[in-house]
Amino acid sequence: MAPSSDHSPACASALERVRLLKGTALFAQTPENVLAAIEPIMREMAFAPGQEIFAKGSLGTSLFIVCTGEVGIFDGLRPLATFSPGDFFGELALLDAEARSASAVAQGPVAAFRIDQEDFYDVMEECAEVGRNVLRVLCQRLRRQNEKMPPVVA
Q: Please, what is the end-to-end C-alpha distance for the chain in angstroms?
């Protein structure tokens, strides 16, 4: 199902978009001039409750930042995570353009911004801190997932 073309007034202005970026772990340390350069490449998306944003196994090259609503990340029917306003998801496919490792589903009405791989790479070339932040956040998420895993019994 394709995303709706409705616009969310909560994040419609350039200033609101920059504030949303600054509030994410990914861009919290990013200079204002770089955030201002990122703002125009953000594509506004709207999703209906229960709408699949992307499916496990699909090829992806985009990162999403939640503006309003909540997004559930699932492996089949098993919930893995829930993302709220200011959170981002889809960063693995953004970095490696491989098949998605999980599905993302709108848990209610969701407004989000999509940043595509080619545009994101341009930003990382301009500001190395963004690339370091991606690695830092990926490590944090991997550690949290590892802590949730049951111990291996030999």
A: 45
CA distance linking residue 103 with residue 110, whole number of Å:
15
Instruction: Identify whether the C-beta of residue 30 lies closer than 8 Å to the C-beta of residue 48.
Output: no
For residue 67, the model assigns a pLDDT of: 94
Model pLDDT, residue 7: 43
Contacts 24+ apart (CB under 8 A), 128-134: 129/29, 129/30, 129/31, 130/26, 130/27, 130/30, 130/34, 133/25, 133/26, 133/27, 133/28, 133/29, 133/30, 134/26, 134/91, 134/95
Q: Residue 16 sits in a domain of what CATH number?
A: 2.60.120.10
